[in-house]
Each structure stands twice: as structure tokens, then as C-alpha cells.
Amino acid sequence: MSDPQALKQEILRLTREYSRQVHGPFRPASDPERKPWKAGTTIPYAARVFMEDEVEAAVSSTLDFWLTLGSEGAAMEKELAAFLGVRHSLLVNSGSSANLVAISALTSGKLPDTRRIKPGDEVITVAAGFPTTVAPIVQVGAVPVFIDADPITGNARCGQLEAAYKEGKTKAVMMAHALGNPFDLAVTLSFCRKYDLWLVEDNCDALGCCYSMPRPLAESLGFSENSPGLDEGPDRVVRWTGTWGDISTQSFYPPHHLTMGEGGAVNIVRHQKLKVVAESFRDWGRDCWCPSGIDNTCNKRFGWQLGELPEGYDHKYTYSHLGFNLKPLDPQAAIGRVQLRRLPEFIKARKQNWDTLRRGLAVHGDLLEFSLPTHATAWNPEYGFSWDATGCRTDCSWFGFKIGVRPGAPFTRTALAQELDRNLIGNRMLFGGNLLRQPALAQLRQDHPEAVRVVGEMDGADAIMNSTLFLGTYPGLTSSMLGKMLDVIVSYCNSMSCDAT
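RE: above sequence
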């Protein structure tokens, strides 16, 4: 075959056929070609969900062999930003790297001196969660200030923010939306506006979650527009999580809402300058904003004088930050673009799977404690959630189904996790539990007590550490897989209750 393009199309045709034959178990549960789950095989808590379109996109991009971030990456950055309704999205190689870039950007000398984070400044965060929400705070020389977590929502107890504030020291709040449940954005934004603080939303577990508030409250916080595709009527403002703060982060690791294999993103919500500095930290710390392989976008490549360099020093080799190289590959972005188109159906599946598990386990509400969305006060199988008096609401794109074992239950969280393991049902702790109990933080506090500050007792974070696990809600879970999960947990609760009597 002498025509290269015809040859490529034949390769891609065969690629699609190969994917259909080999990757059937990874198709969405709703797809009619999905291979059925076999009893006695593992039910993972999360997994990549894809079809032949993703495989074709990856192979096509690889055949072009640009490899480093290029046209596919640029397209995905625009498409992700458009989906969220933010000013810019920058792709990086992981969600952890996204958090590192986000907090590093706030240390830039290009920001106003009164607002930039300097060594010894403080960033408020939450004790329960994933370590790389907190580690970058330490890595840039700032002090993480820990507030407690609520065992029901998994999120920060935002009523403690005021107690955590220290005048002249506190510069930012950086917290995650736990397991796809938004934290209290109304309280947090009001606090940040009051003290002119940055808000960094770790949105890695929460792509596709919504938070809404009454329009007068939203407008008082500087928000009047809904996110694209969202509308709850003229009296409310509804936006995706990751679009309320100043900067937010995403993870595209396989368990997350969409995947590039490895990968992540930094979302710049409003401030153009944050895009420039975040991109610099991602790209070696250089001052030049030309894409790889392109020169002289500014038309004065040899016309700058920065730092103590001689005038006219090549702008492509001028560094304004001590940065990193954290870009993903273009074939990854090609996969991500296809995944992004699937995101609405993935969000819908996660909500349905959470609801199936909640209804199926309601019979054992005496032994098990279930998560509630932030601002919800109760759940009813007929009417769904009831809400508090704030007027704020959350609509969760659940990363997982959180279960707490109640005090006095005839079994422990660990015993339940072991029973799930025996039945090949994937489960996880709420990541690091109380991070202050982790060896790394315990050692840091021992070696450098001034490197960390703790506000009050961490009873909620300890409860999460001791009593909580979560199951999967990912869109590859079939009805038979969910049924098996419910059968195992209900049967175990029944048997343990009988033994106890």
C-alpha cells in the first residue's frame, strides 16, 4: 500500500477491531457490547472505562509521533475550559502535579507582594484526605493549617475557618471536594472574600459536581453567571465545582471521572496572570510563553532585559521561576478528548450507581452510616434529599460510595473491609484518613514543629480514619456487579447481627 494516509486508515480500522475483541470488559456498563461480569471475578472499586474510539485516538496520535504536548493537548485544554466555563485549563502529568503547580503559582513574584505566598505564610487545609493536597503547601515553604473534617460529608468543617485565620500570615485556602461531594463553598468563599485570600479547589475527585446558591448570595460573592449547560432558574446561580475558586485542579488517573492514563489539569478561573505563572511553573519556570517548537510569539525574543541577564538574552531561555517539567504527552490528550465527550454519561452513571447502593443498603442504617451531600440534612428513598436553611445545594458526581461503621456495631470497619476483600470487592479507605497521623506528617511535626499548625481537635478526621471506607461508583459497574456488592454487605450485616444476639 503506497498511500501513507490509506495505510494509516487501515491501521486504525484494525485498531478498532482489536479493541472490540480485547477490551470488552472496559466498556461502559450501559453499552450493549459490554461483556457481562462473571461471578467469582473481581469487582474493582474503580477502573478505566473506554471504547475503541479512545484506542484509535491514541494510536492515531502516536503514528503522527509528535509525542510531546502539541495540537491534541491544545485542543483538550480549550475543550476542558469550555466545558467548565473557566478562562484557561493547562494540562499536566497528574493531579498531584496539578496541585503542585497551583500552589506554586501563588508564590510568584509576578503577583502583588501582599498576596503572594512566601516561606512561612499559612494555607488552611483539611486534615482528612489525600496527601498531595497538602504536600505541595509544605514543598513551597508554606505552613499547612489543619481544620477538622465532618465524618458525614467527608469535607472540612468550614465553621473552623475563622479560628484558623492568622492576620498577616494566612494567604490561601486549599481543600478537596471529598469523593465528589463539594465542600461548603458559600462559607469558604465568604471567608476568603473577607480576608482577600486565594481559594484553590482540589477538584480531582469531583469533575462534574455542581454547587448552587441563591442569586443574591452568589452576586455578593462576585458570581452572576451559571456554568455552561447548567441552569436552576433565575433565582439561583449554579456552577461546576472547580469554577468558584481562583484556581482548581483535576486528576485524570484511571479511577477518576475521565482518564488519560496519567494526567491532570490546572484550571484558571478568572485571572489571566495566574495562567501565565502556572504555565511557567509547569514548563521549567521559563518566562517565554511560546509553545514547544514555536519561536518568537512576542516578536521580541531578543528584546528583553529581565533579572540580571544582559539585554537581549534569548527569551526562550529566561527563567522567572524555579519550575518543573510536568507536561503530559500528546497521545494522552488525544485519549482525554474522547473521554471528555463521554463525561455527561459518566456523571449520570456515577449518580445512578450511588443511588442503587444507597437504596440497597438502607435496611442496615442501624449499623452503617452513609454520606450526605453538603447542605443535605437527610435522605429518603421516596423523596431523596432534604436540605438545610442556607438555600445552597450540591449535586454530586460521586467518586465513591462512603460507608461509616457506627459505634456499637458488632463489627469494625476493618472487619467489613476484610469481608469485602474475601469476596473480591474493591474498597478503599478515605485515602490517608487523618493525615496528621501519617508517618510523613508525624515525622515533620517531630522534626519541625513550626512547619504545621493544627486548629482544635481532629475528632472528625479520626472518625474517618477509624470507621470509614468507600466502594466504587464508576461507570463500568454493571447491575450484576452492584447486586453482588449489596448481597455481600447485607448478608454480612445480617450474619453479624445474628451472632451478636
